[in-house]
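for the record, two folds in this file. i put them one after another cuz i was lazy. first one right below, seq on top, structure tokens after. the second one comes after a little note so u can tell where it starts
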Amino acid sequence: MNIMPSGGKRVRSGPAKDPNSEKSRRLGYTLQSLPNTECRMKPPEWPLEPADDERVRKLEAEKWKWLWKLPQARAWHLPQFKWMIRELALYARLSTACEIAPAPTALTVLLRISDRVGMSAAGLQALGWKIEAEAERKPVDSEFTRRRAKELNRESAAERSPMDETKHVYQRRMSGNG
């Protein structure tokens, strides 16, 4: 008898968990938000043997620096995700190789690694991460922004006639009217 874990034969088979569902709320399933800004922490040392070709080494180094500026890098720096450092180096090496000479099998492996390290939407969700949308970021509250908002309101009011009681007038786009 073949005993299968729930969800099916394959890893992540079946529908993805919905962090906004009632079941997820009951189970305490939430996604950890990663700020949608550049990570400024120092990248770790390159863990693989250097490539033989100078051009490839340079491209791998650029890719490595780029990876560690992504929002996911904040999570990769955490102790529980240190195991990903070698996987990330393999991702950088393989993605560089695919840029130079794409091969279908290499691209397939690259896609699998991207899922494991959180470089795809499915990978982010599987790891319990989400990158904040710009709208989720709190607006900066400062004297400058308050003063600028008042100026814009005054300018808007000056452009309207005294009989006009509408607060805002939005131009409407009509489809098919060029």
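(here's the note) second protein begins now
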Amino acid sequence: MSRKLHYGLSVAVLALIATGASAPEILDQFLDEKEGNHTTAYRDGAGIWTICRGAIMVDGKPVVPGMKLSKEKCAQVNAIERDKALAWVEKNIKLPLTEPQKAGIASFCPYNIGPSKCFTSTFYRKLNAGDRKGGCAEIRRWIYDGGRDCRIAQITVTGRYRGVTRRARWRAGELTDKQNILLKKCGLLTRTDNTKSCELTKTK
């Protein structure tokens, strides 16, 4: 039996949320599932050399082809990137957030699209204006990577399947009332897949 629920949250992530886990714990589990943990450098959806859980820099230096890290080093890199993302949320989101909300926002913005795009996004403006539902609805508009529509399924050069956008899974209207309560409204993360994210550009 699949360990994924029909609306996408894994049993592990859902259990963390239901038991009141901290944002770092929730974010770690979610990123482990969705980003994977690669100890050898690989190209992400935008063609950028990446390692571990999506890091593009290690010890202040860019990731390069052929780079390999130990699992222990990746754990260190992942913790740094996780803490940076959550610190960004704490500093820049001006309304009260639950732990799942912190994890969800950190995963999307800045972890996925980057701080510069976050600051100029309608998502950021609406959320900080108190429009949680409107802010969450904006997430599904981020569907392009390098001009490529990530909703179109592709076979990568490694033969791995890559399909729909990850952030479009967070659609505000796709959760039942019970799920919304459990996930704290925008406590987030709906419709999963096992692919790397590639939402870097918003639709018009």
